[in-house]
Specification:
The structure holds two protein chains of two kinds.
Chain A lengths: L2 H15 L16 H6 L6 H18 L17 E3 L14 H12 E3 H15 L4 H6 L3 H16 L6 H13 L4 H13 L15 H5 L1 H9 L6 H8 L7 H23 L42 H8 L14 H13 L6 H17 L12 H4 L24 E2 L5 H12 L3 H14 L4 E2 L2 E2 L4 H14 L2 E2 L6 H6 L2 H12 L6 H6 L6 H32 L1
Parallel strand pairs in A: 3-6
Antiparallel strand pairs in A: 1-2, 4-5
Helix pairs in contact in A: 1-3, 3-5, 5-7, 7-19, 8-9, 8-13, 11-13, 12-24, 13-22, 13-24, 18-19, 18-24, 19-24, 20-22, 20-24
Chain B lengths: L3 E4 L6 E4 L5 E5 L4 E6 L4 E6 L12 E6 L6 E6 L4 E5 L8 E5 L6 E6 L6 E6 L3 E6 L5 E6 L5 E6 L6 E6 L3 E6 L8 E4 L5 E6 L5 E6 L3 E6 L5 E7 L4 E6 L6 E6 L6 E5 L8 E3 L6 E6 L5 E6 L3 E6 L6 H4 L3 E5 L5 E5 L5 H11 L1
Antiparallel strand pairs in B: 1-28, 2-3, 3-4, 4-5, 6-7, 7-8, 8-9, 10-11, 11-12, 12-13, 14-15, 15-16, 16-17, 18-19, 19-20, 20-21, 22-23, 23-24, 24-25, 26-27, 27-28, 29-30
Classes of the chains: A mainly alpha, B mainly beta.
Family (chain A): Belongs to the sestrin family.
Pfam families (chain A): PA26
Catalytic activity (chain A): a hydroperoxide + L-cysteinyl-[protein] = S-hydroxy-L-cysteinyl-[protein] + an alcohol
């Protein structure tokens, strides 16, 4: 691409950036209530912004350099990665020479160009912003595609629940992990769709029907195995009752947002520009330290520390010395172990296998956690939480071993049962979820760190099964001994924290694990946490609904 | 003949009749038994889980009974093992073979109908393995190149041919002598295929899928789709009805607890339905008689059904018809309650 074009783009972006960008309804999404957007003092800058997007899109489409010859092992999406981040590295650093900036910010924004760009445009048109979550997921275009489709469908597509309900349910779900980031985003959506302001005061101000959902929300978020048919029955019978279709819709939204919390925290996703704690545009000469929210009476969400992200991301690629307490196993070792595992044909008695599963469970119960428990929750989050003490309990240490036996995937699997049920009750959402799970499970570029042509399937399977093991789900045909070979302690700690206590995870923890891996690979691991967790929660929920229907 | 059943300790995943249809074997996660089928009840003759050495190899996805030697059973285990059981032995010795070759759950085992000692398995790891039960290892391995194989069935028309269906919606036809590549492959469904069954007389193969259809394929020379049945739920199991050319039984995977018998020429409403199961049925096995069959279910039961007790959904439907002519007129016909005055009036009109 010519230097001239870059400059031109930068000028354009700059022009766009000084208008208030966020939640501006575009003509494309006119379905929104125009009154509510006026209330928020929006509108007006629509054309400028989406026009700039269109411009970028066409400009790039014409000028993409010829693709490098494809590595035969690369799926088509991952050919030539292009720096494409300029229109979503928001506001800052425009004053410095653009090309150099780009290399510094490339962490967030490398991706296969055309598809990612198109997806970003779609994402922007869907929700009037290109949120940070989508940007991080942009590392994995094929996944982002399914993610956006699914999220758009469950929040904005055909479905039994009213639109403002959906966003409120999302708020309730994010509340369980005190994820201010998602809560704030969903609050805005809720208001834009005509939701009542008073509901945002907290759970005490919402209709009883919504309130009734809270039990399921709480259980699914932390101890999904405790869900039973009486919970569904309570919801579907009596006053303010839910239809089964509505229940399923709500469950899908709940599980989506519970697991999205895991992703948000585990990737250290920053607040959006317009949120408290989000960064703001700096004039040249302004010192970095002043990049703090100007609005001081709003509580400063603790979940995402307002460090100087520019510095933070710049440094994270060469994080300081490894902490002496946890020497990390290098990629070479992992690769060696995968090789040994695939070579050895160890015949192991089933009893031994059962023991290994249990030992993984018990060991995981003994793992420490990253971060500390939150001492207090800001008021604007805690109003959406009830019974905040209720949290994850190690499955191996559950009190009622007999009441909650291990969940055998071979008896109730997503492919056979979950899919069919969810599809039946809620317009084909099963297809979307199915594609999303499959993509997350099968995603691979055959790389690890800098190495290419690596068969990563064992490593991925170990992660996936470890996550589900934390939630009491066992795959009969998996040797859980492999987990200990392939996932070292610090990674297990990270995964467990991200899956079960996401609110404790910060960007620092993200930096500390998998140090030899690339960012895209670390994000990949976090995607698997998201999907494996969501699938686990869904399996428990759907099995319960299934039981309720057959009884 | 009456309908009768026997309860079990846990959900039953599969059942298999012996050669002369006098005994039935059932398997599940917590169930593995053989029953003798008597006039009006089942009598337990063997509980293979009585052994002290219970393990995951006892938790079956599927059971098959040898067609050539009545003493042999084979099971597909959720942990990837394929086991062969000798019913004449006792205790631990019953388990004659324990093949640990599949890397993932085994979905299906089937004995060869004429070749003694031959057994085939299909697994989640995408392979099929052909065993001689006298040997310690598989004699042939077939790589489907799909994620997972859900069902394998020997053709009753050609002793070397077997069909395999997989989760990517494709059907493969293999020759047991050629493990290098499959003879034919075609995309049959838009979702995972869970079951297939060869027609006992025609060269038809029926396939059942998560896309809520059962399709009947004619495999003579040119492949054609003969019939498509639309079901209300994903189908997990199908079996042609003996001596009834167009009839096939189906079991749903979720939601629908009845066993439906379809006439393939009438694809929207079942010919007969059996509603005894309280949870989804997991398998159907016909006795030679087209009026009697057995079924197992996730509701922890084993049933014998007879056609005398079938419900006939078609008879409850309101007969009506609509047709359009080329002038844009619509003809609509429906049933009315017979009333003499109307009949007379109608007769008058016809004149």
């Amino acid at each position: 691409m010519s230097l001239k074009l870059w400059h031109q783009l930068w000028n354009d972006v700059f022009a766009v950036k000084i208008v208030p960008v966020q939640f501006v309804p575009t003509p494309g999404t006119a379905a929104r209530d125009s009154n509510s957007s006026r209330d928020l003092g929006l509108g007006g800058d629509v054309v400028a912004l989406s026009g700039a997007f269109r411009f970028l899109e066409t400009a790039f489409r014409g000028e993409i350099p010829p693709r490098r010859k494809r590595n035969s092992f690369c799926p088509p999406e991952t050919d030539e990665a292009q720096p494409i981040g300029l229109f979503w590295i928001e506001f800052w650093r425009v004053s410095e020479p653009p090309y150099r900036n780009l290399t510094k910010a490339e962490l967030f924004i490398f991706g296969p160009f055309r598809r990612t760009n198109n997806l970003f445009v779609d994402a922007f048109l869907q929700s009037n912003r290109l949120d940070h979550v989508s940007q991080v997921m942009g590392y994995h275009t094929s996944y982002l595609d399914h993610f956006l489709k699914t999220q758009n469908f469950i929040l904005r597509g055909d479905g039994p629940l009213p639109f403002h309900y959906r966003h409120y349910i999302a708020i309730m779900a994010a509340g369980r992990h005190q994820c201010g980031y998602l809560i704030n985003l969903q609050k805005q959506e809720f208001l834009l769709l005509g939701g009542e302001h008073s509901w945002l005061k907290g759970l005490s101000s919402i209709p009883p029907k919504l309130k009734n959902l809270y039990d399921i929300n709480k259980i699914l978020a932390h101890r999904p195995w405790q869900l039973n048919t009486s919970h569904i029955e309570k919801l579907t019978k009596g006053k303010d009752s839910w239809s089964l279709a509505e229940v399923i819709h709500a469950i899908v939204i709940l599980t989506h947002f519970h697991s999205l919390c895991s992703f948000v925290f585990a990737c250290g996703v920053n607040q959006e520009v317009d949120q408290a704690g989000g960064y703001k545009y700096q004039m040249p000469g302004e010192t970095r330290g002043s990049a703090h929210p100007s609005n001081t009476n709003q509580s400063n969400p603790k979940d995402i520390p307002t460090v100087d992200i520019t510095e933070d991301w710049k440094n994270s690629s060469h994080v300081g010395p490894p902490s002496p307490t946890e020497p990390e196993v290098g990629i070479n070792t992992i690769m060696q172990r995968m090789k040994t595992l695939s070579e050895q044909n160890e015949e192991c008695t089933p009893v031994e296998l059962a023991k290994r599963f249990e030992s993984i469970e018990t060991q995981s119960a003994e793992l420490g956690l990253v971060g500390a428990e939150r001492l207090e929750t800001p008021a604007d989050i805690s109003c959406f939480i009830e019974d905040g003490k209720f949290g994850y309990q190690d499955f191996a240490k559950r009190d009622e071993q007999f009441d909650f036996p291990t969940f055998r995937v071979q008896d109730y699997s997503w492919n056979d049962h979950g899919y069919s049920l969810v599809n039946r009750l809620y317009n084909d959402v099963g297809n979307l979820l199915d594609d999303k799970f499959k993509t997350a499970q099968n995603l691979t570029y055959y790389t690890m760190g800098g190495r290419t042509d690596v068969d990563t399937s064992r490593f991925r399977r170990a992660i996936w099964n470890y996550i589900q093991c934390l939630l009491g789900i066992r795959h009969d045909d998996y040797d859980y001994g492999e987990i200990n070979h392939l996932l070292e302690r610090s990674l297990k700690t990270f995964i467990k924290s991200a899956c079960c206590y996401p609110e404790r995870v910060t960007k620092k923890d993200y930096d500390r694990v998998l140090r030899e891996f690339k960012h895209s690979e670390k994000v990949h691991v976090n995607l698997m946490v998201l999907e494996a967790r969501m699938q686990a929660e869904l399996l428990y929920a759907l099995r319960t609904v299934n039981r309720y229907m057959t009884n | 003949m009456a309908t009768f059943y026997v309860g079990q300790e846990g959900p039953v995943n599969a059942l298999a009749l012996n050669r002369d249809n006098t005994q039935v074997a059932i398997g599940g996660r917590n169930v593995f038994k053989v029953y003798k089928i008597e006039e009006d009840k089942f009598r337990e003759i063997c509980n293979l889980r009585a052994s002290k050495h219970l393990n995951l190899s006892f938790s079956c996805n599927d059971v098959s009974w040898s067609w050539t030697d009545d003493h042999y059973l084979a099971t597909a285990a959720t942990n990837g093992h394929v086991c062969v059981w000798n019913l004449t032995k006792m205790g631990k010795a019953m388990q004659e073979q324990d093949y640990q070759e599949h890397k993932r759950t085994v979905n299906k085992v089937n004995f060869h109908a004429s070749e003694p000692n031959r057994l085939i398995s299909g697994s989640q790891d995408g392979t099929m393995r052909y065993f001689d039960i006298r040997l310690k290892n598989a004699v042939a391995i077939f790589y489907s190149n799909t994620e997972s194989v859900r069902d394998v069935q020997f053709s009753p028309h050609n002793p070397y041919t077997f069909s395999a269906v997989s989760e990517n919606g494709s059907v493969q036809l293999w020759d047991v002598r050629r493990s290098d590549k499959c003879q034919q492959q075609f995309a049959a469904h838009s979702g995972p295929i869970f079951a297939c069954d060869w027609h006992p007389e025609n060269t038809w193969l029926a396939t059942a899928s998560r896309d809520k259809t059962i399709k009947v394929w004619d495999l003579t020379s040119k492949l054609t789709l003969e019939y498509t049945i639309h079901t209300i739920a994903s189908i997990g199991h199908i079996k042609w009805r003996p001596q009834r050319r167009y009839h096939i039984a189906s079991c749903a995977l979720v939601v629908d607890c009845s066993i439906n018998i379809w006439d393939v020429r009438r694809p929207y409403i079942p010919f007969a339905a059996f509603n005894e199961h309280k949870d989804i049925p997991s398998g159907v096995a016909w006795k030679e008689d087209p009026h009697v069959f057995l079924s197992s279910g996730r509701d922890c039961t084993l049933y014998q059904h007879t056609f005398d007790y079938a419900s006939r959904p078609a008879s409850k439907a309101n007969p009506q018809g609509v047709s359009l002519n080329n002038k844009g007129e619509i003809l609509y016909a429906h049933k009315i309650n017979v009333n003499n005055a109307i009949v007379k009036a109608a007769v008058g009109i016809i004149r």
